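Lab notebook, bench 4. The sequencing result for the construct came back, and we need a structural model before the next group meeting so we can plan mutations. Quick request posted to the team channel:

Model the 3D structure of this chain.
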Amino acid sequence: MSDVKEAVTRAHQDEWARVVASLTRRFGDLDIAEEAAAEAFATAVERWPVDGVPPNPGAWLTTTAVRKAIDRIRRENKRDDKHKEAQMVYDNTPPEPLGVIDDDRLRLIFTCCHPALAMEARVALTLRMLGGLTMPEIARAFLVRETTLEQRITRAKAKIKAARIPYRVPAAEDLPARVSGVLAVLYLVFNEGYLATGPDTDPVRHDLTTEAIRLTRLIRALLPDDGEVTGLLALMLLTEARRTARVSVSGELVTLDEQDRGAWDKALIAEGHQLVRERLVAAAAGVAPGRYQILAAINAVHTSARDIRDTDWSQVVALYDQLVHLDSSPIVALNRAIAVAELDGPEVALAAVDRLEDELAGYHAYHATRADLLRRLGQSQQSRAAYDKAIELAGNTAQTANLTRRRDQLR
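Done. Here's the predicted structure in token form:
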């Protein structure tokens, strides 16, 4: 029985996106695809313990889901006389393939992450339609009520239908811009798991980081030559490798300089480094790296050092200098200043950080960085005030615990 349960769980992880995408292509309706796929998995839970796990679970689930969808359409056709949907059942003419890659899952990704939808809707749709997460799981992850989430997804589906957002991979000339939107959604999901923003949730959400990595792996399998997809996957892997060392037994965030590097996941680091090396080869051939590739390279430098004192800070600053040309946001400038502190000293870094006050006054990490630099300069009173402000703005219990301890260590 446990083997069957594991088979269902594994099939859900491996096949959910494929089944939903296949049904979306056939019936042209996200609601039908989602509900029929859910019914097919529910049937598997009932039938597989009795009949055994089929030799090809994905094919079994797809066939079952198609039958469920047809049954639903026939029922609605009898009740509402929906001739158009009924015609879909019997029209076996495949849709005209559009775009540079013909894959149902990739079509679905671009539909869920279409720029006409609000970012919150893109995230929710992606996790539901491609990740197979339940409404309660997604609502919990992003600290919204389940009814709110359901309304958000319903409105997004309605907009897709009303605006006739195409279920297709964008044309070759539009693909880079659209891929960047997809990656932004997945990076947002990963970051929420990496350091959850809510005070009443686990500080690190392994379920979200795992799902973001899984979906990014899927996109890389579909777009293996896209450097930014590879860069984002490498960035996620190198960050995830440090997960078990990032929160102490007492629930306090452990910063990079204090982490037990022996607890890092060596397999994830090795894989992440390999992906970074792949992109370095491309860069040597004249292919300019993008934002995620540079961030991955920065993380590769950090995870290559056996001790914080062995970090090549000059290389980290040089990489941030590259990143500033692509992303001149104050967050990037703040992170660069943290590296500058290790290379040129806290006084130089503090001057750079203070120039960001107008843009980052409401960001806890700005005040935490100032507090640390002021502490290193021996300005305890000002450091304490900065820590107080960082604690006030921090939305994560593990962050708050770390900041409080550092503040209380001041003389």
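The chain has a mean pLDDT of 87.
Will bring this to the meeting.
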